[in-house]
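User: Structure please.
Assistant: Input sequence and predicted structure:
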Amino acid sequence: MGIMPIHERLAELWTIRTRRALTCEEQADFEHCLAVNAMHCRMLANLHNLSLLASMTSDREWQHDICRRIEKLGGSPPAPRI
């Protein structure tokens, strides 16, 4: 999975903001992109925490399922614990 469209728009708006003030519509888009990005980061962090729990309880099936969900969201699975 490549860069998400929401992140492309966020980068575009940030670049525009360095040159001029955002319009009201652009500012609303910017705030929306930030909110979606924060939600995405929280979901990935939660999945990483669940993956750690699955690893600590030696539940390989659950951990593989969680890693698939992480990859589907565009994240990288956690490094294996030794």
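The chain has three helices and no strands.
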